[in-house]
Amino acid sequence: MDLIFLGGEVPSHRKLLVDAGVKHIGVNFWRLMKRGLPKNKDYLLAERFPEDIKIYIDGGGYHINKEKFSPVELEEYAADYEDWVAINEERIFMATELDAKGLGSAWINEQRKTFWEDFGADRFIPIWHGELGHPALMSLSQTYPHVGILGQTISTDLTLSARARALQSQYGVSFHGIACANPDNLRQVPLTTASTLSWLSPMMRGETIIWDGTRLVRYQKKMKDQARSRYKAVVEKAGLDFDLILNDDSNEVAKLTIWSYLQLELALTKKGRPMLSDNNVDKDDPGLAETQGLEPDNSALEVRKQSVEIKGRSADEIRTLPVFSMSSKTIIDTDGSGRDVIRDAAVIENSNMSLRQCNTCFVAANCPAMKPDSACAFNLPLEVKTKDQLKALLNTIIEMQGARVAFSRFAEELNGGYPDPNTGQEIDRLFKLVKQLKELEENKEFVRMTVERQTSGGVMSALFGDRANTLKHLPDGGLNEEQTTKIISDSID
User: Fold this and answer.
1) What is the tens place of the pLDDT at every residue in 20-53?
2) Where are the domains positioned within the chain?
3) In this structure, CATH architecture of domain 2-271
């Protein structure tokens, strides 16, 4: 993933970023307009950025949506933005659309089909808003190779991670985070790029953002003296002046922040999911686009929990957890005096009621019955109360597992026939299921007894008592001399 350092419209910021070795720099057209464009000549990016820098353009929709503009003013701004993009088209690596809600969805869709398709679909980033719903995200993913998602949307949509991965797998779309440097956001959604102004916070607000070797940590202004002093080795490793950092030199602090974000970018590229830590809510430059206007809070997690007053529920609001149901069953029990007592007992059962909703279901992107604002169309009735029902369930699971083994083997063959350890694991699971079913079908009845005795009386004496001594003698007093002689003579003959 590439981190895009916004703020390239400011010459001093641009110089800091270029000198620090940043290769992905963002320019916000709204802020550029506020600073004032040249009146006698065009503002050309090629004259202000080195050739090896990839330039990303943000239309400034966040600021436009906060201001109160008439439709005519919005259309004039949109025309200026599109003209400026056309002038700098060859130097722009990627650009977002003008995300102005006041122009309406019809106008935005028309602009996507006219100007932005001419600009190039491989460099154009339409922006999706959470309030448009997940079907709109699916539609954009089907139509365009890139889709932009606001950091605020990523923070509030808990199902976005699974949906984004499914859409990415199905359509090959890449997602781009807009104003998104919150570590939690970077962990959740598979982003190709993430733009941020947070690297300016230490220089403008006195915060401290530093890479400690394994994660990105952030401290607010009141902790800067304590925080910065403990990272002397890190600062020196970055090739920066530790004394200037302690003296709060704005340029040196900015260099340290840029270096830290570059280390984060490197970790994201190598590991995919780095270990990140943030001591406060991530905070953007003017507009607070990444934090929704919240101030940093460095209090411990336990303290924040204690500050919230938990309100109790009334008795009529409390009910059984929806995944279970309760039924009544009559049983015969024995009381303390030994008498049988008939009573009703509560029995817990599986509930077939589903709480799944299409708007929040993580398979909505691929579901054939997906319908916005609706409950799940599928019911999963399952009852296992008898031996036959259990056998039927195991047979079904064995068939499913057998299909997985077959497909795994098929994939193994397609990949050159090299043995895949996952195939062996699936085969092992299949044999375990077959063994369990076989054990269930067997009907064995046996008694196993182990007897051991070490006294002189022997085991038989211990089991049968004095009667065991009679086993030592022949019946009816044994044989007399004549009978014994006859037996010996017969054996010799």
Assistant:
1) 999 999 999 988 988 888 888 889 999 999 999 9
2) 2-271, 385-443, 458-492
3) Alpha-Beta Barrel (3.20)
